[in-house]
Amino acid sequence: ERFPDIELPDHAGNIRRLSELVGGDPAFVNFFRGYWCPKEQAFFRLLSAFQSEVEVAYARIVSISVDLPEVNSAFRAGLGARWTFLSDPERRYLDKLELGETTDTLNHPYWPASFTLAPDMTIQSAFNGYWFWGRPTMEELRRDFRTITRELRTDWEVSAP
């Protein structure tokens, strides 16, 4: 199944399409509650430490929340994150994607779900991060990125001497 090509403002307020951000590379797309959640803060610290590997391996990370662009920008800067954060404060995709968290009626955030995608936005894996242990480990992301990249790159296998 292909992931929908959503369009939202990024952390700088520029309108971006998910397909543009994936840009022909494997991608990790995660929906998160917001900067205020301790589970999100812990997970994003892991992602921030992982981002250099993702960059040199020609893969992408995109994070999406209901926070305003300026809030996402501050959270991103505080983490030292270099990937794109998208903002959906109007909650345009919350119900369309069936990712509305039902237990938080105050903030009405996204359910903390994440997906690894092939360049054509086909879903490789889906993770339910409502419980912290349901989120992908960096090793699981490496595995998915390796599987997707192996299928993409014709020069992946070493030829016999």
Please outline what is shown here.
The protein has 161 residues and is an alpha/beta fold. The protein is built from four helices and seven strands, in the order E-E-H-E-H-E-H-E-E-E-H.
Going by helix content, strand content and strand pairing, the class is alpha/beta
Strand content: 15-25%
Count of alpha and pi helical runs: 4
| Order of SSEs | EEHEHEHEEEH
Low-pLDDT stretches: none
What's the total number of strands? 7
Shape estimate: globular
Instruction: Provide the helix percentage.
Output: 25-40%
Strand arrangement within the widest β-sheet reads 5-4-3-6-7
Mean pLDDT, to the nearest integer, reads 96
Distance between the termini: 39 Å
Compute the CA-based radius of gyration: 16 Å
Largest beta-sheet characterization: 5 strands, mixed
Describe this structure in words.
- The structure is a single chain.
- By secondary structure, the chain is an alpha/beta fold.
- The protein contains 4 helices and 7 strands.
- It has helices spanning 18-22, 38-56, 69-79, 138-152, and strands at 7-9, 15-17, 27-31, 60-65, 84-87, 113-117, 123-128.
- The strands form 2 sheets. Strands 5-4-3-6-7 form a 5-stranded mixed beta sheet. It has a two-stranded antiparallel ribbon with strand order 1-2.
- The chain is globular.
- It starts with 6 loop residues before the first strand and ends in a 9-residue tail after the last helix.
- The model has no long low-confidence stretch (mean pLDDT 96).
